[in-house]
Design a protein that fits this description.
The protein is of the alpha+beta class. The chain contains nine helices and five strands, in the order E-H-H-H-H-E-H-H-E-E-H-H-H-E. It has helices at about 10-20, 25-30, 40-55, 65-80, 105-110, 125, 145-155, 170-175, 185-205; strands spanning about 5-10, 95-100, 130, 140-145, 210-215. It has a five-stranded antiparallel sheet with strand order 2-1-5-4-3. Helix 3 (about 40-55) packs antiparallel against helix 4. The longest helix has 23 residues, at about 185-205.
Length: about 220
């Protein structure tokens, strides 16, 4: 399987909503409702009671009553921060950029360390403020539009050729990079993802977007 790095643009409004309701991050990104919080468990219980009452009162036979019941259920869910869309799940649209297994080597090539590093380059892959529930490889993190602009400018000042002087297999292995570039083909792959990452941040900065980052 392995560990994969991801970045994804979101609007400032979406970030504000996630900050107000951090328990909705999983549902926003992955279409999953985490029912392990008291607020969501209570909401799901209320939804169940609404459905039971509607069925027992015969309301599920009338299209108008069905729509009223649906509106009540959506309201209960939205009050907990669960984002609901008709049809497809939340988070539709920009699915983000996957750096695959190159994320750690690329972070090292950009910052010279396997750990978190100073912004702006340190924010490109492993930076940001944590939000939401703990996950297998840490919480989702976010960058504000201002931080996105800083990262975009820093990445834009580099080229894939600038990474050549930073590529040292022995140092990367000694530093315990999770997925080091062991040969030229893997290094070229890291350069490829660097170009994609640079373009992605440039696009996000141009549109005034925030960014979510996570490992899975």
């Amino acid at each position: 399987m392995g560990m994969y790095g991801h970045v994804r643009q979101i609007t400032p409004e979406e970030l504000n909503q996630l900050q107000r309701n951090p328990e909705s991050v999983e549902q926003f990104l992955f279409g999953k409702i985490e029912a392990n919080t008291p607020a969501i468990r209570a909401a799901l219980e209320r939804v169940q009671q609404i459905a039971i009452r509607a069925k027992s009162n015969g309301q599920m036979q009338d299209p108008a009553e069905i729509e009223k019941t649906r509106a009540l259920i959506l309201n209960e869910l939205s009050r907990t921060g669960v984002q609901v869309q008709d049809g497809a799940g939340d988070g539709a649209g920009d699915e983000g950029l996957s750096l695959e297994k190159s994320w750690h080597a690329l972070h090292y090539l950009l910052t010279g360390t396997i750990e978190t590093a100073a912004p702006p380059l340190g924010n490109a892959i492993l930076g940001g403020e944590e939000i939401g529930e703990e996950r297998d490889y840490g919480r989702v993190r976010f960058l504000t539009p201002e931080q996105v602009g800083e990262v975009a400018r820093a990445l834009g000042s580099l080229s894939k050729d600038d990474l050549v002087g930073r590529f040292d297999v022995k140092k990367m292995k000694a530093a315990n990079v999770i997925y080091p570039c062991r040969d030229q083909s893997e290094f070229e792959l890291a350069q490829h993802y660097f170009e994609q990452l640079s373009r992605y941040y440039a696009d996000a900065a141009a549109s005034g977007s925030a960014i979510l980052l996570w490992l899975e």
